[in-house]
Recover the amino acids of this structure.
């Protein structure tokens, strides 16, 4: 759901396709006819941004037909009555009118999901990159809790991480409201562990998301930005606005492995080592912690990220001294022992990887989360349903801007193309430039041929790009990625965000398409 798995997560995508040759039934819910559809039993080609209307209708079908897990709900959940009230009006027919699907298809998929012995929902940015992204995730959790499809092998919710160590970065305290170990900064007894070890008082002020940070740059409250391994000028929505904010700063520092578009604007650039030049650990999308070792020698004077941070800290008056990545990891194990206490470098040398939580060295690691739901005992801490209402995309197509643009990734290119554009000669790349994917019906009406240069405009910006005529999209929907800085897709996208997570609405904005003589 909301995952172009074969292109954005090809390893997982290949495993799903292989399993689909056996007994696995794959349901694809996506506005585009992505490659995974070839392996799917069913494709629900949903209107962009209408996921909650679909999920609420599925929930209503499952409740109406008595397909929900009454024992699981009674033992492990709360606020079931609130969920009943919220989904009451979301009949399959009502939601079909919103989603563009057939009512009978919604009913069929709801039954398949609920009656399967084990069902899993895999999702990614097609769910989260909306103004209602958090509510989309809440509703996926509602569906899993309703049916008890969680906490047992082959079931659950699988958010596919967009990069190899997104999970690890968050777990290590890179989120603005959490300490290492994914525990709230405001939990006094937990925070005191770090204060005692580091001999410093940690501010209890929760940090800002990137979205709120950029808002404060606009108001002048923030005057300096330190950017590590990120290229916001190309990656963020409303590119022209982002550029203006970065230009407004008194000081911009970029720490990266290439001279990115953001680095070119920086006052100071700190060169860092790449993944092949470092030693440490990564945490994969399935919570598997693995060792990474130095493969090639870095250029002289280029340091690991942690070495740069320690050097800066010392210059600013706090002696943060470590001799190796293992020493840092051992401190993580000591302070966040509930999650990592048993995962030593020695064990990681001998094993393919260990899934956290792993509190001690006799613990095998936790391959399946939430198994307590199925241990036969009533769970003391209940998981409450969080009923949510459907809200449409914030910018709808109209007479002036008649198309909906949705964005995503392409197979060979990676994020802002910083790493993947430097392929050595001889590597075959299928797509070497950006295209506007447009349906043949729309292309015929606008007199656009495959490969023609077209002008794409939104209320925020304009660009030129080659057209690709394809039935992967439906009439009225166009698609682009954001990989090529030469075609800066994010000059078009909408500067609106989820109020809880701060994630931008990358997946829906209104545009017009014009031919160029």
């Amino acid at each position: 759901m909301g995952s172009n798995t074969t292109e954005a997560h090809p390893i997982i995508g290949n495993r799903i396709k292989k399993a689909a040759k056996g007994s696995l039934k794959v349901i694809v819910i996506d506005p585009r006819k992505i490659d995974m559809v070839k392996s799917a039993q069913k494709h629900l080609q949903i209107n962009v941004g209408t996921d909650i209307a679909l999920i609420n209708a599925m929930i209503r079908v499952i409740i109406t037909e008595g397909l929900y897990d009454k024992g699981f709900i009674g033992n492990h959940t709360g606020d079931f009555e609130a969920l009943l009230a919220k989904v009451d009006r979301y009949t399959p027919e009502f939601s079909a009118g919103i989603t563009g699907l057939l009512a009978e298809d919604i009913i069929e998929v709801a039954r398949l999901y609920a009656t399967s012995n084990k069902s899993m929902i895999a999702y990614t940015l097609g769910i989260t990159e909306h103004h209602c992204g958090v509510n989309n995730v809440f509703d996926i959790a509602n569906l899993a809790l309703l049916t008890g499809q969680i906490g047992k092998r082959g079931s659950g919710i699988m958010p596919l991480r967009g990069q190899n160590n997104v999970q690890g970065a968050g777990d290590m305290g890179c989120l603005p409201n959490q300490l290492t170990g994914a525990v709230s900064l405001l939990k006094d007894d937990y925070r005191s562990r770090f204060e005692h070890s580091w001999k410093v008082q940690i501010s209890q002020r929760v940090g800002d998301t990137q979205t709120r940070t950029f808002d404060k740059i606009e108001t002048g409250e923030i005057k300096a930005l330190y950017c590590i391994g990120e290229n916001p000028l190309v990656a963020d929505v409303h590119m022209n606005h982002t550029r203006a904010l970065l230009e407004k700063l008194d000081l911009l520092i970029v720490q990266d492995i290439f001279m990115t578009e953001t680095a070119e604007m920086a006052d100071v650039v700190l060169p860092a080592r790449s993944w092949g030049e470092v030693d440490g650990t990564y945490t994969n999308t399935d919570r598997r912690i693995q060792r990474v070792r130095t493969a090639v020698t870095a250029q002289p004077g280029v340091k690991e990220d942690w070495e740069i941070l320690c050097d800066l800290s010392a210059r600013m008056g706090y002696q943060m001294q470590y001799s190796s990545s293992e020493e840092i990891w051992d401190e993580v194990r000591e302070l966040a022992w509930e999650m990592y206490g048993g995962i030593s470098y020695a064990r990681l040398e001998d094993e393919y990887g260990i899934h956290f939580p792993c509190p001690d060295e006799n613990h095998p690691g936790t391959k399946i989360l939430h198994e307590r739901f199925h241990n036969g005992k009533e769970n003391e801490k209940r998981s409450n349903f969080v009923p949510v209402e459907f809200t449409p995309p914030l910018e709808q197509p109209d007479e002036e801007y008649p198309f909906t643009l949705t964005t995503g990734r392409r197979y060979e290119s990676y994020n802002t193309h910083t790493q993947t554009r430097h392929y050595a000669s001889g590597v075959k790349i299928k797509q070497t430039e950006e295209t506007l994917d447009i349906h043949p019906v729309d292309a015929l009406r606008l007199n656009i041929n495959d490969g023609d240069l077209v002008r794409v405009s939104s209320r925020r910006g304009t660009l030129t790009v080659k057209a690709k005529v394809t039935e992967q999209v439906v009439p009225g929907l166009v698609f682009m990625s954001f990989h090529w800085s030469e075609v800066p897709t994010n000059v078009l996208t909408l500067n609106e965000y989820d109020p809880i997570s701060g994630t931008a609405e990358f997946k829906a904005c209104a545009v017009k398409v014009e031919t160029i003589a």
User: Anything to note?
Assistant: The CA atoms of residues 253 and 268 lie 5 Å apart. DSSP finds 19 helices and 20 strands in the chain.
